[in-house]
């Protein structure tokens, strides 16, 4: 007799969903659309992609080949979908955009889809925006693009329904410095705009989120990879999310996750792709998909929000996959070290100095390659995550 508590592994709890994903693409590795699309398709979503760049590999290698997609080509591709009546998308997921002009075309796409889908089926369309601009105080897009994101996010009903910035990006779009100064520091804590020593304060994270809720009318926000004051020494990163109430106030929750001693590329894309599927799943179960912005009633507590439940599932999947990736990386680099003997260097020997540079470059490329996220190999952890974390109210 079957155990009634056993989950049917063939049953997909995520409703049938069509997604338009607009982000970067790489030939090798898993970032941008390459990562997000795989994650969504693994959970049964039907994904169509417009690639904003086409690169040989991601920029973590510090060398690549390829091209950026011209803004007019984004418009042309969408026009082709429009002419063929292929706009039955439930979700738009927008990731890395290379220029302010390209972002302008993506915003046009988002607003057109919202208008068309809302006219046919109110409450059915949802825009997830990942404002890819930088990390740890380092901006890797133009100031014009930053202004473009601020404008897009302030679009009100025409703007994104869920924004998923990292801590630095939240500062850029909200104007709130997350480190802040509290009385317990005697006013001595200075904002550290760069580096791993930067520490945010949860009350300032909440303040920044409320700016997006109240000033920009963004319904949902999830801030990833926040280094919180007092938590770094514990080896913990915080993910902070919120869904606004009808009066514009926040309902914040926090999920603490362990820091892994490895640099991964594509984790933001992984988070966004998984969030589309899991939020869709949780909202379906909560009966909120038919409401504008998939929103919950004000009486729902922060930790009971579909957004909080989805975040916990997403982080549980990611934690499992990244831990296994780190194990594989360590094993691969151990083999590399054994099979590659570096030249001993005489500082007065120019040829050996050049050889050392080559060895260092080869080692860097090997280490970066070894840390490519093993998403495909560990797809089961995406589909059937073992819940590892809890959300607590803030």
TrEMBL record:
One of its GO terms (cellular component) is cytosol. SUPFAM superfamilies: Ribokinase-like. Its EC number is 2.7.1.35. Gene3D superfamilies: 3.40.1190.20. Keywords: ATP-binding, Kinase, Nucleotide-binding, Transferase. Residues 332-361 are annotated as: Disordered. Signal peptide: none annotated. It is an enzyme of class 2 (transferase). GO terms for molecular function: ATP binding; pyridoxal kinase activity. One of its GO terms (biological process) is pyridoxal 5'-phosphate salvage. NCBIfam families: pyridox_kin (TIGR00687). Belongs to the pyridoxine kinase family. PANTHER family: PYRIDOXAL KINASE. This is pyridoxal kinase. It comes from Knufia fluminis.
């Amino acid at each position: 007799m079957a155990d009634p508590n056993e989950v049917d592994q063939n049953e997909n709890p995520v409703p049938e969903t069509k997604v338009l994903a607009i982000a970067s693409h790489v030939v090798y590795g898993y970032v941008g659309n390459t990562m997000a699309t795989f994650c969504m398709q693994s959970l049964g979503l039907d994904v169509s992609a417009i690639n904003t760049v086409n690169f040989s590999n991601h920029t973590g290698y510090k060398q690549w080949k390829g091209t950026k997609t011209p803004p007019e080509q984004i418009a042309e591709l969408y026009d082709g979908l429009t002419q063929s009546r292929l706009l039955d998308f439930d979700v738009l997921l927008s990731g890395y955009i290379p220029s302010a002009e390209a972002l302008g075309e993506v915003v046009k796409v988002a607003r057109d889809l919202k208008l068309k889908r809302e006219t046919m089926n109110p409450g059915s369309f949802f825009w997830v925006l990942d404002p890819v601009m930088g990390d740890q105080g380092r901006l890797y897009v133009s100031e014009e693009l930053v202004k473009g994101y601020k404008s897009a996010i302030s679009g009100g009903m025409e703007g994104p329904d869920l924004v998923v910035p990292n801590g630095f990006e939240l500062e850029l779009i909200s104007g709130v410095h997350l480190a802040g100064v509290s009385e317990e520091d005697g006013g001595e804590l200075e904002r550290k705009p760069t580096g791993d020593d930067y520490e945010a304060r949860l009350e300032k994270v909440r303040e920044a989120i409320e700016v997006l809720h109240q000033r920009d009318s963004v319904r949902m926000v999830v801030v990833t990879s926040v280094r919180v004051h007092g938590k770094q020494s514990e080896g913990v990163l915080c993910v902070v999310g919120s869904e606004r109430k009808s009066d514009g106030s926040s309902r914040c929750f926090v999920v603490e996750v362990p820091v892994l001693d490895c640099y991964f590329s594509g984790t933001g894309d992984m988070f966004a792709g998984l969030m589309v599927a899991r939020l869709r799943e949780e909202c379906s179960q909560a009966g909120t998909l038919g409401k504008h912005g998939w929103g919950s009633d004000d009486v729902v507590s922060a930790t009971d929000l579909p957004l909080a439940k989805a975040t916990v599932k997403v982080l549980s999947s990611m934690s499992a996959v990244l831990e296994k990736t780190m194990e594989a990386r360590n094993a691969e680099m151990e083999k590399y070290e054994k099979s590659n003997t570096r030249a001993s260097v005489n500082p007065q020997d120019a040829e050996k100095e050049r050889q050392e540079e080559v060895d260092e470059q080869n080692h860097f490329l090997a280490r970066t390659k070894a840390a490519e996220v093993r998403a495909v190999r560990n797809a089961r952890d995406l589909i059937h995550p073992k819940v590892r974390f809890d959300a607590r109210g803030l």
